[in-house]
Amino acid sequence: MTDTNHMDLPLFRDDFKQGITPYFIQAPQIKSGAEYYFETGSGLRYQVLFAKKKRSYLENIVNFSVLSEEFEDEYSETNRGEIYRVIATVVEIIHIYHTNHAYSTSYEFSGEFKQGNESRGASIRTLLYYRKAKEIMNPFWEIEINGNRVIVHRKKRKNIL
Questions:
Q1: How many CA atoms lie within 13 A of 11 on its CB side?
Q2: Cα distances (angstroms) measured from residue 144 to each of 27, 36, 48, 120
Q3: Res 80: pLDDT
Q4: Please, how many CA atoms are within 13 Å of residue 10, restricted to the half-sphere of its CB?
Q5: 50 closest CA partner among 40, 65, 38
Q6: pLDDT tier, 88 (very low <50, low <70, confident <90, very high otherwise)
Q7: CA 24 to chain centre
Q8: Which residues are CB-contacts of 91 (< 8 A; sequence separation ≥ 6)?
Q9: How many other CB atoms are there within 10 angstroms of residue 145's CB atom?
Q10: This prediction's pTM
């Protein structure tokens, strides 16, 4: 059992195992770096960037985008049947990042809306992120969906015990 007096609580469940092999990850040269890259089998290049929130250096925004030039913008629909392996790769990147930033207190994700679905409360991508977070997060962390954002934050110490 993890000692709840420490700030470095594990992010993922103890029994979490990737069921799908992630793509090769190009990690930052400095372990504490915030930019990660990977390329899919179809040649799409992705960036996963961790940005710090203004109010707290321990709170993170996870920005996930495609960098391939064949798309007009970084939020284009790129479904080439690789979504599960892409998500597995992003999960692995978050695991690596949290290992190097164990005192982080929150991670925030949001997914862009597909054209015509902007009136929904949350995008399909955001709902996918929420479902995946609920599947893998350690009970020491809370998961909430707020509008079009998924926020994973460390439970307060009194809520852990």
A1: 21
A2: 28, 25, 21, 17
A3: 58
A4: 12
A5: 65
A6: very high
A7: 17
A8: 18, 22, 132, 136
A9: 18
A10: 0.84
Predicted confidence (pLDDT) at residue 77 exceeds the cutoff of 80: no
Of 25 and 117, more confident: 25
Which amino acid is located at 75 in the chain?
A: Y
Mean pLDDT value of segment 113-136: 80
Q: Which two tokens stand for residue 66?
A: 């495609």
d(CA 64, CA 86): 10
Amino acid type, 33: G
Which of 138, 87, 83, 85 shows the shortest CA–CA distance to 109? 87
Q: What HEC string does the chain produce? A: CCCCCCCCCCCECCCCCCCCCCCCEECCCCCCCCEEEEECCCCCEEEEEEEEECCEEEEEEEEEEECCCCCCCCCCCCCCCCHHHHHHHHHHHHHHHHHHCCCCCEEEEECCCCCCCCCCCCCHHHHHHHHHHHHHECCCEEEEEECCEEEEEECCHHHHC
